[in-house]
Write a structure and sequence with these properties.
single chain, alpha+beta, 4 helices
């Protein structure tokens, strides 16, 4: 992430980073993931699927995911 020093110096902003594998956050990751999964499953939040790729197109799926959007892998379709 890039941020202009002027944005931090002349505006009332606070910038704080985190590393999910850091012990401070690691213990919170599993409960937060479970809570997010429950919210998605219940329909309280909606995460639209951008595309579905067969497992044989994993490179294309990863490239698409890096550009943004929720990507699904059609694993069952890979065995047909």
């Amino acid at each position: 992430m890039s941020i202009s020093p002027l944005d931090v110096i002349f505006k009332p902003l606070t910038v704080r980073g985190f590393w999910m594998a850091h012990p401070e956050f690691e213990a919170k990751l599993a409960p937060a993931t479970a809570q997010a999964a429950e919210m998605i499953a219940s329909g309280r939040i909606h995460v639209p699927v951008t595309a579905t790729y067969p497992l044989s197109s994993i490179k294309e799926a990863v490239a698409h995911a890096q550009r943004g959007g929720k990507i699904l892998l059609g694993v069952a379709e890979s065995f047909s």
